[in-house]
Amino acid sequence: QLSGKWFLVSMASRCSYLAEHSHQLEATAMAVTVLDGQSLTISTFRKLDRICWEVRQHYLPDQVLGRFLLKGEGDCSKVDVVVSEADPSSFLILCYQKGRSISVKLYGRTSLVSDAIMDKFEQRVRAVGLSEDVTYYFPTYG
After folding, report:
1. What CA–CA distance (Å, rounded) separates 110 from 7?
2. Using one digit for the tens of pLDDT, what is the confidence trace for 81-132?
3. Which domains does the chain have, with CATH numbers?
4. 11-50 burial by CB neighbour count: b if 16+ within 10 A, else e?
């Protein structure tokens, strides 16, 4: 049900790089493919320096439905990914946790989502201890 194209609408994170470069945010889209009925291949597309970049990731299924593991290089780069809430026809809220650091992303099937969906996202952001001052909204053009 998560397969297909998604647009990054908003993100909450204490990431210092994001805070310093938030004025340079570009429209971002991702394509989700379910490989074996469980694991996900994520292709994220964004523009950087007028070039479209693609980042590919492989989310491995956890034993709990809706939880995935994103492995990087080395033991310290494991990221737990949780589908916090979703309506596969309209929105997807993902929580990413690496160590004690957490971020929340809101994706929509379109680049604009309803106020009700935005409220759900903002509630999730507060529930994980983040706030409006570390919430960023992505442009709808590009």
Report:
1. 6
2. 999 999 999 999 999 999 889 999 999 999 999 999 999 999 999 999 999 9
3. 4-137 (2.40.128.20)
4. bbbeeeeeeeeeeebeebbbebeeeeeeebebebbbeeee
